[in-house]
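Exercise 7.
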Amino acid sequence: MIVSLNWLKEYVDLDGVSVEEIEEKLTIAGLEVDEIIDKAAMLENFVVGHVTECGKHPNADKLSLCKVDDGREIFDVVCGAPNVAEGQKVAFAKVGAVIPNGGFTIKKAKIRGEHSSGMICAEDELGISDNHDGIMVLDEKLEPGAPLAGVLGYDDVIIDIAITPNRPDALSHIGVARDLAVMLNREFKKPEVNTKPSGYLSENEISIEIKNRIGCPRYVGLVVKDVKIAPSPDWLQKRLTAIGQRPINNVVDVTNFVLHETGQPIHAFDLEQIGEKKIIIRDAGDDSDFVTLDSKERKLPPDALMIADGERNVAIAGVMGGENSEVTEDTKNVLIESAYFDPSSVRKTAKILGMSTDASYRFERGVDPENTLWAARRVAQLLEEVAGGKVADEAVDVYPEKLKRKEIRVRFSRVNRIMGFEIPADKIVSICSDLHFGIGSREDDSVLVEIPLFRPDIEREIDVIEEIARINGYNNIPGVERIWNILENRIDQTELAERSRSVLNSLGLFEALTNSLHNEETASFFGRGIKIINPQSIEMAYLRTSLIPGMLWTIGKNLKVREHDLALYEIGNIFNKKTDNKIKDFSDFSEETHLVMGLSGKYTDKEWFADARNYDIFDLKGLIEDFTEDMQISDKVRIESFSEKKSFFDYGFEMTFKKQVIGTGGKLSGDIPAKFDIKQDIFLFDISLSAMKEIKKSENKFEELLKYPKIIKDFAFIFSKNTDSGEIIKAIRSESSKLLKNIKLFDIFEGSGLGKGKKSLAFELEFYDEARTLTDEEVDKDFRKLIEMIKKRFNAQLRGE
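Solution. The predicted structure, written as tokens, is:
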């Protein structure tokens, strides 16, 4: 977004504010400044020159030898332009000037034997336009020696701002000035719009019908009669050229001016070219060919939103007008279009057509639907001023269903909690008011805030808090040693599935999506099936009772295309009747969200340094442990193994929460994969996410880095083969002191040397204290105590004794 500093000053008082401070304030406000260009500095050593003499160069037919007065002295200048003549006022680059287009420095030179001290410039050499037909001839009333920057309106500073997609309100001078006024605590001044009474109404000149109300919620048409097409006045041309826009004529220039002033795209139709004096907003349908203002024929998609008259299309809504209704030198009466078009509709059409215009760029991001009529009136006011137009006393404003502002209750305690420090409630309300948010009812700890439609990015309380932080200033956040913040610890029901997806994706699994309808045999095998009333086929007659069949079908399909090594998951709802009786109401069946994970094939391929290894039960258990750890519930659930067949598994483990089984898995029984043409081992785990919603996450606590050394000890015992390592670790934890922080089983060994029915387990123990350095004596005391406990409780033998 290119912004003129002189233009900004029309909406906010910037007296006494340096360019550097403006840059800082804008960047802090989230409007990052990419570049600042001092245009006056670019034209240093450029002045108005007076050609006092002009004659032929004695040694070159196409060159002229001129004398140029800069108000102080007269210079000899060689010029190659065909239109240079005596008496002209010209743009004169003195020795030392740097030409903007090209970057070369003017020096004294000898051209074909004649001295030349300076250069008479063309528009393209000054970067004003692409015109190189001849030198730039200035107003003859100008005084020689006047700085060229002031004459051309280049006594300005141009600010290039990187506008993020969520800030369409900042795609205008008024939008930038609004934020700048808040940051500087100065008054924001929006221009007043008044026009002279004309005695006629727009509705008597034009009718407007919206057939696609989703694509166009609001359309304003305002008629201005008796305009005189002419070049724009100097002030208007300077405003546009300052931001890189090329002046065309007063009508077109006014629409461009208001676009960059307000962010509202405006289109001007020649009213006499509007067939039957009707405007109809509709889809293109079968009208596929359309010639736009750039004289290119476009092939329109059927659902492209179009502006039509009573006979034909006249504009692509939100993108570009048509050649058949453009303003020309003969235009007398103008119809001003100011509308709100649905961003997705404009975005889709512009993308299909491969077009990007200033209008589509703004409509795609969302303009302010409440500004539509004001912007049309602003254009009309300027046309009255610069083109002598007579403005209709009333516009035609078609707005069938008004878009409503969002209302958000902002809690003061929540603001302070998120920020990490206290902002007074009155200041919070003041910031919201300064941002032009409506202030509603206020309670002890909250205020109701109404969000203007020019801020479509603000949807929730947290968005308002972000605005408060932005305006209050990130650099005003106090420097403190620590900011304590209690995090929410219950898994949000609406976010649980997405969080699970994120975790499983990070663990290397791929998501599967399968049909939620099964045949009767499959539904009945895995639960109590519910038949739907009008099934499409017998294969899709029952709601699924489990995610396992879908996972097995997915694995089977992959095997058929020789994808044997799979790590997959699926999240979805399952449905089960509570009894075998007929369903009478919703209480007779359950609907739960489940997650199933599946592993099959090889975990690693054969490499030069290692053999291939298939997935096994330990990979599945490790996956579940990683999942519960990342979901912050590992300390809330228990994972217990079973070695006998249970449910659909030959062996495996269960996940329990408060003694309720919420997940079961293991090696799938051999007869089940065969039903799905699968001939390799399958390891599955099925979890009820609906049950997981009741689990509170572990609190996130910051722990400082350990300042004192750890002491590592290890021991190995010979146990009975049936001894559970989990029970041993539990016993060690219960009998040890607080100095023992971590226990790790790092070795398991079975062999004839240990004796029949025996195994060796080795554990690593980690001791430390956060506040001091431990002594060997106190750790040894705890360590020996644990050795004696294990010997007695598990009838174990310490290795090495």
